[in-house]
Amino acid sequence: RLWGKARIGLRCTQGVKPWNVYLPVTVRVFGQALVAAAPLPAGATLRGDDLRWAEIDLAEDNAPVVTNAALAVGRTLTRPLMAGRGLRQTDLKPRMGFAAGDSVKVLASGPGFSVAGSGQALTPGIEGQTARVRTDSGQVLTGTPVGTRVVELSL
Q1: What b/e readout covers 121-149, taking b as 16+ CB neighbours within 10 angstroms?
Q2: Which of 154, 107, 104 is nearest to 124 (CA)?
Q3: What is the pTM of this model?
Q4: Dist CA 143 CA 125 (whole Å)
Q5: Could you tell me if 20 and 1 are in contact, meaning their C-beta atoms sit under 8 angstroms apart?
Q6: Residues near 9 by beta carbon (within 8 Å), at least 6 away in sequence
Q7: Which residues pair with 25 in a beta bridge?
Q8: Beta-strand (E) ranges in 19-61?
């Protein structure tokens, strides 16, 4: 996508001597998103009144903006936010569904079936990352943490 800072190339192939030139451009895309209502320090746990809606430049950063307050409230900031700055997904510490060694529920589903079991987490269940689980039979599976002590297998 052509958002933020980019370069556009122009070329002339006709005339006495062909030429190329590259021009820097900045593409701005404005839209509604959640922003910090006041300056917030790194490590702060977000509350509903810490955020407000505003129109911001969505292309200002590569990370997606947060547009659902329910996904932000209760989460911890990884870096400070200035008042009015858009809240990005990278500003939020990933949720941890379980620690290594915890008992977890293992879910697997596909066309026409759904299976659930249990196992022991071999790695922590961090949102957006894969986790490894050892089942009661000793098999090691890899899946995605989808909640508190729940792993979903991708088949």
Answers
A1: bebbbbeeeebbbeeeeeeebebbbeeee
A2: 104
A3: 0.65
A4: 9
A5: no
A6: 20, 21, 22, 23
A7: 6
A8: 19-27, 30-36, 51-57
Pick from 95, 90, 67: nearest CA to 79: 90
Residue whose tokens read 């290594």: 100
Distances (CA, A) of 72 to 19, 40, 125, 127: 50, 14, 19, 13
71/58 Cα distance (integer angstroms) = 18
Contacts of 98 (CB under 8 A, 6+ apart): 104, 121, 124, 125, 131, 145, 148, 149
107-141 per-position pLDDT tens digit: 998 888 989 999 999 999 998 889 999 998 999 99
pLDDT tens-digit readout, 39-70: 999 999 999 999 999 999 999 888 999 999 98
Q: What is the mean pLDDT of the chain?
A: 92
* Angle subtended at Cα 27 by Cα 22 and Cα 30, rounded to the nearest 5 degrees: 180
Structural contact between residues 64 and 41, judged by C-beta atoms closer than 8 angstroms: no
Q: Which of 96, 87, 89 is nearest to 48 (CA)?
A: 87
Cα–Cα distance between 117 and 110 in angstroms, integer?
15
